[in-house]
Amino acid sequence: xxxxxxxxxxxxxxxxxxxxYALHVSDKTDGGEGTKNVQKSKPLIALxxxxxxxxxxxxxxxxxxxxxxxxxxxxxxxxxxxxxxMARLHDADLVVYSGAGLQPWTHTFEDEKNGLDMSGYVxxxxxxxxxxxxxxxxxxxxxxxxxxxxDNMITAVNVLKEKFIKLLPENRELYIAxxxxxxxxxxxxxxxxxxxxxxxxxxxxxxxxxxxSYLASKYGFYVESISGLSPDAQPSAKxxxxxxxxxKDQNITTIFFESxxxxxxxxxxxxxxxxxxxxxxxIANITKDESLDGSSYYSLMLQNLEKMSKARECR
Length: 315
Hints:
- The protein is of the alpha/beta class.
- It has helices spanning 2-29, 35-38, 50-60, 83-91, 131-134, 150-167, 172-196, 213-219, 237-249, 264-273, 288-292, 297-311; strands at residues 44-47, 65-68, 94-97, 115-117, 204-207, 222-225, 254-258, 276-280.
């Protein structure tokens, strides 16, 4: 009797499992709605720098799948995508890359239908010829760090907005509203920089890697860099000596390096010149800790402003 009861329970459980399986398979494979629509994939948008990624995700919200091609904490100039990443990029609906010689691997997408070179839409500054003395010749004649100019970011936002509307025209009003809100934040950044940088005692910042010429050009100060446009370039003894002399002559109290570069050289200069060292964020990429802290283009630009205005003794 006990055996019959056990068998009956097992048969009931098996029957329940069969019905559950049949119903779910039917939902996924028949011509109806339900699960099939839920599982419909979103357009995939890949972006080659954090600044562009931040703009894209704020414009598109949850309507598309945005991903930053750079893993957290990876230096943008040195990154080479794996075959797995490249396969994903070729399947993406849109690959937005910085251009202007920043990432040579993106040349793959120049003739691809899903490739978008953002440098073709923004205003670029010509690269300084001081790179020759630092021992580095950059691939492009232009400075590729254009996203640090909020006017260029406004242009990028409008380009992304139009691309998203073309992909998903039913979300047109959403994209327009989100783009306007993001542009308002960019204009706020610009206003704060103009206010803070208006009257400063020191007219120069010293950095290891010259990613900040767009800020200097827009807000009226100078940049002295150790390694030019590439953070990996090795400066000559002449360049090192010249930087130390300028730091002392201009009474500079703080010199900067970026979080993805070694602080070895900048620390040596700081020791010789008896000044402090701090970090500036070029916003090409972020660290995992910055992501966990909720950092954004907006917050990082304001952090840079606070540090530079303090170093320049602005009122």
